[in-house]
């Protein structure tokens, strides 16, 4: 276990050279100089707020047309690549108005979804207590710039410029996100060490044009509670000889880095969510394989391969709200579908008779079982497999034929196969659907409605301030 009182930079290396030191490590001074090339702020024009632009309709229009947002609120954490990156179109709109905008956006989508939902109440968007620095998991593309301002780096010997970021909208170019204001400081610090380390350890970067190079992207996840961080290098081939010195150096320099992994993915191929979940080619290079996070009063340990929510403080709030909506008296059977590492199951368990959690990821189920043990929860059973298959099996074996409450939190495309049929066979009084992609959720809600489950309200939660994303709790009851 690492000593978390020692967070931040280590001062163990005294070398000030920009080359690796005798042990192959790089110096703090080099790191700081590299970091200063990516300033956090930039000066921008502040345009006056105009009262007439503040109606919800205007906000929806402003974000969808992208033409001249007229309310700009400068705050000290302004992002220097706001427009280039494009991920946070409402970062410089006041937070109060971001919430109004998201509520209005949901109302519009509910209206558009048709007459099935037109009379359903849409509640106000619940705020995120962390408005900046809330993002605790991210996947970043690694790219190497070969020239800057007309100067070629290659012609100047071993100088290199490494970018970590996202593909620029509609262009095949990576925008380095600098010190990203919506990202936790821990992740921003690790990114700084990464840029320096990749450069000084001479790790080659994959270039789609030439189809050469080793490092494609990095997955980072960190804990708000302990700052423990796990890092995964996504590479084109297993090359531990190259990656191990870099991994050792980063783990030694940055005390929060708990474990560093390598994952091999075919060159240039996008890592789809199934591959991320299966993680067959995941190898631990240095350190330990778990980080510890806290939601509400419960402790959770996550491995690098299981699903981990992005905004921890808001996640605690959503779990607490789900538990409240379940109205449990201690006699109920609760079924938690797409249960991940067990967050909802474990939060609900103390108020229920029993909880059954299902997820297809073996890593998440392993984490969920461990998390139940850590929190001394004994009335939860987790099952691994596809939701529709496991529900059918549990029903056939008479292990699960009835439930009082079903909570489901599926991935982007919603429910597959006979999932909805199997849920309605359990005859729950309440169904709670937590959705990150409301447009695809309407399809499932229509099927629930056909089976007699009416949506009573939609409650949005601002999981990603500054961006257009939010999550929605849909509360359904049997009519
Ligand atoms: C949005 S996450 C749910 C997270 C979880 N509710 C939590 O609070 O951490 C979606 C989960 O669904 C799982 N999953 C995706 N497709 C599935 C399927 N067909 N059957 C079972 N689980 C699935 C993924 O492994 C992932 O853990």
From TrEMBL:
PROSITE patterns per UniProt: SAM_MT_RNA_M5U (PS51687)
Any one of the GO BP annotations: rRNA base methylation
InterPro entries noted in UniProt: Methyltranfer_dom (IPR025714), SAM-dependent_MTases_sf (IPR029063), U5_MeTrfase_fam (IPR010280)
The keyword S-adenosyl-L-methionine is assigned to this record: yes
A single GO molecular function term of this UniProt record: rRNA (uridine-C5-)-methyltransferase activity
Residue ranges with Basic and acidic residues bias: 19-56
Residue intervals of the Methyltransferase domain: 331-425
Family matches, as CDD domains: AdoMet_MTases
Keywords from the UniProt entry: Methyltransferase, S-adenosyl-L-methionine, Transferase
Taxonomic source organism: Fluviispira multicolorata
Pfam families in alphabetical order: Methyltransf_31
Enzyme Commission designation: 2.1.1.190
Protein name: 23S rRNA (Uracil(1939)-C(5))-methyltransferase RlmD
PANTHER family to which the protein is assigned, alphabetical: RNA M5U METHYLTRANSFERASE, TRNA (URACIL(54)-C(5))-METHYLTRANSFERASE
Enzyme class, UniProt record, top EC level: transferase
Family: Belongs to the class I-like SAM-binding methyltransferase superfamily. RNA M5U methyltransferase family.
KW Transmembrane helix (keyword) present: no
Segments of this protein annotated with the region Disordered: 1-60
Sites where the protein binds S-adenosyl-L-methionine: 338, 359, 409
